[in-house]
Write the structure tokens for this entry.
Amino acid sequence: MSDLKYIAGKEPHPRERRMIFKNVDREGWDQSIDTYEKDGGYEMLKKALKMEPGDITSEVKAGGLRGRGGAGFPTGVKWGFLPPNNEKPVYLICNADESEPGTFKDRYIIHQDPHQLIEGMVISCFAVNAKLAYIYIREEFPEGAAILEKAIEEAHAKGYLGKDILGTGFDLEIYVHRGAGAYICGEETGLIESLEGKRPYPRIKPPYFPAAMGLYLCPTIVNNVETLCHVKHIIELGGEEWAKIGKPNNTGTRLLCVSGDVQKPGYYEVEVGSLTMGELINDVCGGLKEGRKLLAVIPGGSSAKVLRGDETYQVGDDELTIWDIPMDFDTLAACGSMAGSGGVIVIDDSRSISWVLNNINAFYAHESCGQCTPCREGSLWMKKITDRVVAGKASPQDIDTLYGVAKNIDGRTICAFGEACSWPTESFVEKFKDELVADTKPELSDDILNPESELAAAGLG
Ligand SMILES: Cc1cc2nc3c(=O)[nH]c(=O)nc-3n(C[C@H](O)[C@H](O)[C@H](O)COP(=O)(O)O)c2cc1C
Ligand code: SF4
């Protein structure tokens, strides 16, 4: 299938470079294994099975692949954490929970090119010596789960899965496991608990780093759907060549999901760092809505810290406006936010900042697993305060209280949900305090919040 035609109206933008999404929205493309094989599918598995497993990990390390699930952790380094001379079974889990608000990429791989994921997983399992793998997919993706089941069946029938894969002596089974639809099941240790049939309470790290003590307390690799697909392309090009795509330490392509106030929201695959925020918004996404100004961007899913539209960012010797920021891991981190899961949320000046923050807080208050007090109580307190701000029933002091609550969650919890829920509030208050205070009412200044008058009221002042 060399004729790369896309469905009319769904052609990639000229600034895109499609590797992972090469077959998404392609004319005449379907999810069957025959179509995939005609396009060269499973050839990279054949190549990988002739390599030493350790050499595959070396190629992934040489490529500098960083995880696409959120933290951007180097994949080859993670694989290297598996204990040497281990006698327990090793598991590989594909994280298909895709729960971060603003992120909608993994589902398209699953829906339109499931064999790319299966091929990436078989290669990765061979590299880490896993003979059992799971795809943990969220409940809300029943169609995706059925597509994956069928793809696994087809791969079995062709000898790409099961016993003695392609006569190499390597055995592997992959099972699809459907979650119950909770954000915390995307957190890798919560996911593992859920897969074990328990309530998804995240585990504390250390000691429960999955590579050492994961599923059934055995060494386990958890990787995102997109991350595992990249492995196939690294085998095709070789790590060194693949690393030439993108920028040093920010290699490869990545899927960006743009939502919010742009003319053409959608998914775009670009070389990491090849576009600035301005080029992404103005060229690729057709610009802001008519007559609107950029208020803010959340660049990596709802838990990433917000960037103000009119701020400048000091990155090394350069002073960048928001429009100049290259969309790569390191620059977004240097600007005080993160590339996260690739969910770029664009907010224009038609939006109320209080409403946006309240919307985010409502999500996190609903999704806290409740295991740690700061997160369980704090996420709800933040939501209740922003509820009051939006309803015009908050006092200016409430904004300081809101900030204090966020700061007391951050860094004080079992899992990174603590940061995921507190960073939006922290950054919104730091960057948009005047806007938030403008939605409060000074006449509602509440003496109960003032400890001195509280003491006075109790006759103790
Ligand atoms: C609260 C929370 C939710 C997460 N949700 C997801 C998710 O839906 N999908 C995902 O791939 N990673 C998610 N992650 C990150 C995973 O814990 C883990 O780091 C990731 O799956 C590792 O894959 P990668 O190295 O390929 O990125 C989440 C993390 C946290 C703290
Ligand atoms: S930080 Fe929140 S989500 Fe994570 S374990 Fe604690 S209560 Fe649960």
